[in-house]
Amino acid sequence: MVSERGNLPQPTRTELNILRILWSKGQGTVREVHEALNEVENSGYTTALKMLQVMHQKGLVRRDDSSRAHVYSAVVTKEDTQRNFITDLRNRLFDGSTSQLVLQALGNSEQPDKEQLEKIRALIEEMED
Q1: SS (H, E, C) 72-112
Q2: Class of residue 25 by CB neighbours under 10 A (exposed 0-12, middle 13-18, buried 19+)
Q3: Are 35 and 49 in contact (CB under 8 A)?
Q4: Tens digit of pLDDT for each residue in 78-88?
């Protein structure tokens, strides 16, 4: 999926839950999103409908209304959304310092497993080249 993010607002917690559903399914009707959302947070059908309508107005999702049941899909990619949140977190809490953010994340999390450590090392080596 090509990013069309531009300067879209950051999604709320519920919007992120809906985006996770759409990222994993590719697309979904209001009913499908509601059923999946209900497994994560207790919400009604009308809540899912309203959230999708708001997200459509914000530009976070697109709506295909060519059939009776509207089908929604994410406009923003998971990677772009993660990048946007990390950039915001880095700027607001770590004075723009990527190293401080990484050190804090590694120091406060559970010990990374061997595979995660290898990925971290590979990324560092790639950045040094």
Answers
A1: EEECCCHHHHHHHHHHHHHHHHCCCCHHHHHHHHHHHCCCC
A2: middle
A3: no
A4: 999 999 999 99
Residue 51 pLDDT > 70, yes or no?
yes
End-to-end CA distance of the chain: 29
The one-letter code for the residue type at 92 is: R
Any idea how long the chain is? 129
Q: What is the pTM of this model?
A: 0.80
| Measured CA distances, 110 to 54, 98, 99, 121 (Å) | 36, 20, 18, 17
**Phi/psi at 41 (5° precision):** -145, 140
59, with CB counted inside 10 A (0-12, 13-18, 19+), is middle
Whether the CB-CB separation of 48 and 18 falls below 8 Å is answered with yes
Q: Please name the residue that has the structure tokens 């459509």.
A: 56
- Calculate mean pLDDT across residues 18-23: 98
CA–CA dist 105, 123 (Å, integer):
16
Supply the DSSP symbol for 9.
P
User: Residue 114: is its pLDDT beyond 90?
Assistant: no
Pick the residue with more confidence: 3 or 30?
A: 30
